[in-house]
Amino acid sequence: MAKIKALLSGYFLLLFLMVASVEIEGRIVSLLHSYDKPSFVRPSFNRIYDTSKYGILQLNNGLAKTPQMGWNSWNFFACDINETVIRETADALVLSGLADLGYVYLNIDDCWSSPARNLKGQLEPDPKTFPSGIKALADYVHVKGLQLGIYSDAGAFTCQVRPGSLFHENDDAKLFASWGVDYLKYDNCFNLGIDPKKRYPPMRDALNSTGRTIFYSLCEWGVDDPALWAGKVGNSWRTTDDINDSWASMTTIADLNDKWAAYAGPGGWNDPDMLEVGNGGMTYQEYRAHFSIWALMKAPLLIGCDIRNMTVETFEIVSNKEVIDINQDQLGVQGRKVQVSGPDGCRQIWAGPLSGHRLAVALWNRCAKASTITAHWETLGLQSSTSVAIRDLWQHKDVAEDAVSSFGARVDSHDCNLYIFSPRTEALSKI
Ligand SMILES: *[C@@H]1O[C@H](CO)[C@@H](O)[C@H](O)[C@H]1NC(C)=O
Ligand SMILES: *[C@@H]1O[C@H](CO)[C@@H](O)[C@H](O)[C@H]1NC(C)=O
Ligand SMILES: *[C@@H]1O[C@H](CO)[C@@H](O)[C@H](O)[C@H]1NC(C)=O
Ligand SMILES: *[C@@H]1O[C@H](CO)[C@@H](O)[C@H](O)[C@H]1NC(C)=O
Fold this sequence. Notes:
With 431 residues, the chain is an alpha/beta fold. It folds into two domains: 69-328, TIM Barrel (Alpha-Beta Barrel), CATH 3.20.20; 335-423, Immunoglobulin-like (Sandwich), CATH 2.60.40.1180. Helices cover 27% and strands 24% of the residues. It has twelve helices and 19 strands. The two termini are 43 Å apart. Residues 309, 311 line the site of one 2-acetamido-2-deoxy-beta-D-glucopyranose.
């Protein structure tokens, strides 16, 4: 009897294990269900790509399986927006082909609303700049296959001193849902000193109770380390202050965001802020680095330039499908800085695992001169005898068939080479 019991419990244990662990990525990734949120799975890697926090806390509203892609009005237009610009941008997203590449969220930032609530206490679009209303705009973009994003603030006022949604969460969420809004960016100005852990969840619950599926983007500026708690609140959370259109800002923000890599995963992403590509403050090489690293870090890809009037270079950068594919890879593990060398650590290697036993590898030269950067396999979590095929995603060409042990390339000052490494024999070693 005891033997049968032991056999039976062994059988159930085996069954349990079979259900609980799904070998999707073979030797690289063995996926374990995270039991509290069964729709997210956690890959286990060697310590280089620690994913210990991946998928644990996610909001689980079914959105953000990969980082959000689209456009936001702030970086180029700031407060100078109106319904014409938003409509023309919708047209440009579609006509340029960017929508087909995945840029589907059209997000209106601050300044869409009137300076005060109406007599019924509701938010109202500014009648001078949005005379047709937000619902009409949502209908317009939906017909084009796009999604509309709007902006509010977890405080008394928005940063540009329009009415905020603090203590109005249910009314405002209902209004947004009734307009057909698909995305909310929720800022942090005039927050009355109230703990963000108290101010952000009420809007999550208010959005949820509308019954409309709405992407919830927390813009808490990283003040209270949102990576530690925002996973169960929003689909993405800002990890830093606002970006500005400069090399200094972009590199600083990349480094700050890197710290939280282990917390990102499908359903909830670290947000190092919107793209500046195309706004004129950085060189072509610097913008290419900005886009490469944002893609590799699984950052939201929200274009921040005037896409009605992009240069050929800007379009080339933001429409690079091979780079976008890294960002949208289904494995959803944030790549990170794995090695630095040279003066002030300016020769950098950033890398992260991809589905299908592959790796994304960036050689980023932050030095003032061109430099050769060499990645050794151990740094990447590969065994040194492993043979690797390498594709360059900016040159769009295969640059090595069977590299072994290391790979180096000359990289221009402030430029970033981005590759996919496909190991041919051994997968990532479990260090
Ligand atoms: C709408 O905004 C754009 C960008 O700021 C501006 O160029 C345009 O003149 C504005 N149009 C109207 C009708 O206000
Ligand atoms: C609301 O939350 C529940 C529980 O997490 C979830 O199952 C549901 O899909 C959510 N609904 C919406 C509209 O987000
Ligand atoms: C842009 O950001 C950098 C780095 O954070 C900062 O030093 C600089 O003052 C900022 N520039 C502007 C115009 O805000
Ligand atoms: C388009 O962009 C160029 C710079 O790339 C600028 O000189 C020009 O004024 C812009 N045109 C419009 C209509 O905004």
